[in-house]
Design a protein that fits this description.
The chain has 16 helices and 15 strands.
Length: about 425
């Protein structure tokens, strides 16, 4: 009898498990991190934890290589085959929302009250996406370099002015110790240009597009401030301060570490590897060229596709993923900035006194998101080409005027992008 009772109990338990599994509605999710073993392990753990935490939803993840991810989403949208949950790069999100790929994210915004500004994806006054991390750029330097050149160490409260920054480059150049005084990272292309270099333009007082209306780039990308920026930018290469567009990627990776570059403009994602090879590495804030120091903001985020039949389930997964323990796990795993102060306190690098804690403060104090407009995806490519041309010696005013014409024509073709 006891054996029969045990079998009956086991059968009932199995029936209950089967019933629970059957009751879970499947949610599809696309992610950009295929090929990144650490990133994939963490996101899959979050999916497994969510699926086990409740009986309503089951997330099924499909990962894509980052280089092909956006094209895959666009193709799926045209074919009507979007998943429930989408991974989206922050500056691209407004285009996907405007194009009808995403719907507003139905979560209580009090949940993200403490999140870094760059992790919140807003378009047309509504929240569409949230990120588990952000990224920040700083000026890499050696403390010994600052001392040898007699330079003041800039702080978040008192960054270098534009004049001090150029004086630092002049001192490095005059020392004869370096192949180049400054490495802005010209070997990197694509999104690096607007992410890393448009903050310099914005600090001069210009921008990629006029954010007051988002209807034109005229006056901000070719006005006096933008021309001053363009002339400064061109001088970096014409006067031998920095390697140009022909920089070898290997030099980008090793030039500062090897001591051939005095200063390097680089992100927090490269910080841990650099710290392992440079004993006296310091991360300095962006210089202030007259309108405040600026760095880029907004990295990959999660949103709900416009065609999802279960937005409440998709939002439940996204909110589940926003727990501090997952933000900290991503930070420890891939080196990026956790989205909240409480998550930062749980990490080895971003906690108070941690080797990368400065990046959290930089992101909080200096970060500016790229123009929040569907037209950004076109304007970014135009900006990249203009900066590369100027670095290669093109006339500054003519190049910026041409960029404005191209951006404005695109805005007009798309009826103002809904602004």
């Amino acid at each position: 009898m006891r054996r029969k009772a045990t079998l009956a109990t086991l059968a009932g338990a199995l029936t209950l498990v089967a019933g629970t599994a059957a009751a879970q509605t499947e949610l599809t999710m696309w992610y950009h991190g295929a090929g990144n073993e650490v990133e994939s392990r963490i996101i899959n753990q979050i999916v497994d934890d969510f699926n086990a935490s409740q009986s309503d939803w089951k997330v099924v993840i499909e990962s894509f290589p980052q280089l092909s991810y956006n094209d895959s989403v666009v193709a799926a949208a045209l074919a009507g085959n979007l998943p429930d949950i989408l991974d989206v790069d922050g500056p691209v999100m407004p285009n996907w929302a405007w194009s009808g790929y995403l719907q507003p994210l139905p979560i209580d915004e009090s949940v993200i009250a403490d999140f870094l500004p760059g992790t919140k994806g807003y378009w047309d006054g509504e929240l569409y996406s949230v990120g588990l991390w952000d990224a920040a750029v700083a000026l890499y330097a050696r403390r010994s370099t600052l001392e040898e050149l007699g330079l003041r160490t800039p702080t978040l409260e008192e960054p270098w002015t534009g004049e001090e920054f150029m004086a630092a480059l002049d001192a490095a150049k005059a020392s004869g110790k370096y192949e180049y005084a400054f490495d802005p990272g010209m070997a990197w292309t694509g999104e690096w240009y607007p992410y890393a270099f448009s903050p310099f333009l914005q600090s001069f007082g210009g921008d990629i597009v006029d954010r007051s209306t988002y209807q034109t780039a005229d006056g901000v990308l070719n006005g006096d401030a933008a021309i001053a920026f363009g002339e400064w930018w061109q001088s970096l290469f014409a006067e031998g301060y920095a390697p140009g567009t022909s920089q070898d990627p290997a030099d980008r990776d090793a030039g500062f570490i090897d001591g051939r570059y005095a200063f390097q403009w680089n992100g927090n994602w490269a910080a841990v590897a650099t710290l392992e090879k440079v004993d006296d590495l310091v991360f300095l804030p962006a210089p202030d060229f007259g309108n405040g120091p600026k760095i880029g903001a907004a990295s990959w985020q999660f949103g709900v596709s416009a065609t999802s039949e279960h937005p409440e389930g998709a939002a439940a997964f996204i909110e589940f993923a926003l727990q501090d323990k997952y933000l900290a796990a991503f930070s420890d795993g891939i080196g990026l900035i956790p989205a909240t102060p409480s998550a930062a306190a749980m990490t080895k690098n971003y906690k108070e006194g941690g080797p990368l804690a400065v990046f959290f403060d930089l992101s909080k104090e200096q970060a500016l998101v790229r123009p929040v407009t569907p037209g950004y995806v076109v304007a970014a490519k135009v900006f990249e080409k203009a900066l590369a041309d100027i670095a290669n010696g093109a006339d500054v005013a003519d190049t910026l005027d041409a960029a404005v014409d191209e951006i404005d024509a695109d805005i007009q073709r798309n009826n103002g992008y809904g602004h």
